[in-house]
Specification:
This protein is of the alpha/beta class. The protein is built from 15 helices and twelve strands. The protein is globular, with a radius of gyration of 22 Å.
Length: 416
């Protein structure tokens, strides 16, 4: 089946009520047949519902659908996109380990990797995703993951997938790609050799700012890399499950451990109602991402001709430094456009004058949004870190919605 069909049908078998829409199982717990049945479930000898912190029937449909769209072997839903990023890293590392992260990364992912994780004895190194040859020297015996984005937020940099994957495979290191902005309709990182894909489902997946959530998808081939001595937690006994070895018991060891250990213990579980909203979102994602992208390209072309705009970032502009990689890897470049004005103060003044665009620290809504990253999402970064992240102080990020594009261009023109 093609993607649009998968998004509407995978993972749901109609119950006796024959409900066309997936039911919302708003429950925390499930009744067991007897104590023996409960014991088999808790010992992982039998599949079934135990407690919604571990899994839920509604959430499971969402997991199966996003896994199918990303060509994964399985997926895990989380309470937020940052929960997905955290679990993706935490599933691989121990005290004394390090990860390598793109220097063009969402501000929250940078803070998690460089600040919060260091309190747990985990360090982070930066690499340049468009010229990743430096990974050869950066990777050492304690490197457990390489984290980057398919389209960087907000710099809109497109990485050199082939080279990143080639070096990571040579060194036996797990790659994690945040595919939030691109969505699986633009690029499928697993098809390019990436081991783990993460999403903030709060963005294009839901599409209307109604729900917070995230998800992680495991590639079918990730298991082979996890057999390495680099990742002992997948090959040694887990005493909390009476000596279970994830790589021996499961075809999806990464997701299995993230669910059975991390979700169990950290508890950042997705609400079944939010999972249901994400299921609805997936049904129309293929239509929305196309419309967002078409509007965004028209706006990027308009901004590129305006005398007050210093620079426009949109991967499908022909003079953009990412254009060749975008044409190589992406079908759509999403609805995110960023551009630079002359100063911090001019950027703030521009935002004040907009009428249709709402000042919101979010992206991928059906309505158009504007953000000044230097004063909001990336405020915690120093001037040098802002520069390295591709976020100058005068940068404006637009999330182009589904309004009439002529109205949006008029609003931007008036503000400029």
């Amino acid at each position: 089946m093609k993607d649009a069909t998968l998004a509407l049908h995978v993972g749901y078998e109609k119950d006796k009520e024959k409900s066309m829409q997936v039911p919302i199982y708003m429950t925390t717990a499930y009744e067991y047949q007897d104590t023996d049945h409960a014991a088999r479930l808790f010992a992982l000898q039998e599949e079934g519902n135990i407690y919604t912190r571990i899994g839920n029937p509604t959430t499971r449909v969402f997991e199966k659908r996003i896994s199918a769209l990303e060509r994964g072997v399985d997926a895990l839903a989380t309470a937020s996109g940052m929960g997905a990023i955290f679990y993706s890293i935490a599933n691989l590392v121990s005290k004394g380990d390090n990860i390598i992260i793109s220097n063009k990364l969402y501000g929250g992912s940078i803070t998690l990797s460089t600040q919060t994780l260091k309190n747990f004895g985990i360090t982070a190194k930066y690499f340049e995703p468009t010229n990743p040859s430096e990974l050869e020297e950066l990777i050492d015996d304690n490197t457990k993951a390489i984290l980057f984005e398919s389209i960087a937020n907000p710099a809109l940099v497109v990485p050199e997938f082939d080279e990143i994957v080639k070096i990571a495979n040579k060194k036996g290191v797990i790659t994690i790609c945040d595919n939030t902005i691109a969505t699986p309709y633009s690029v499928k990182p697993i098809e390019l050799g990436v081991d783990i894909v993460a999403h903030s489902a709060s963005k294009y997946i839901v599409g209307n700012s109604t729900a917070i959530g995230g998800c992680i998808i495991e590639a079918p081939f990730a298991k082979e890399k996890l057999k390495s001595k680099r990742y002992p937690q997948f090959n040694e006994k887990d005493e909390s499950y009476h000596g279970l070895i994830y790589n021996e018991k499961f075809d999806n060891p990464f997701i299995a451990r993230a669910r059975l250990a991390l979700l169990r213990d950290f508890g950042a579980v997705l609400s079944p109602f939010n999972a249901w909203l994400f299921i609805l979102g997936l049904e129309t994602l293929h239509l929305r991402i196309k419309a967002h992208s078409e509007n965004a390209l028209k706006i990027a072309k308009f901004l590129a001709t305006h005398p007050k705009v210093k620079n426009v970032n949109y991967p499908f502009l022909e003079n953009n430094e990412n254009y060749k990689r975008a044409k190589k890897y992406l079908k759509y470049a999403s609805g995110i456009v960023s551009f630079e004005l002359s100063s911090y103060e001019e950027a703030k003044e521009f935002v004040k004058k907009l009428k249709i665009f709402s000042l919101v620290t979010n992206i991928a809504d059906s309505k158009s949004l504007v953000t000044h990253p230097a004063s909001t999402t990336h405020q915690q970064l120093s001037k040098e870190e802002l520069k390295n992240a591709g976020v100058p102080e005068g940068l404006i990020r637009l999330s182009i919605g589904l309004e009439d594009v002529e109205d949006l261009i008029e609003d931007l023109n008036n503000a400029l």
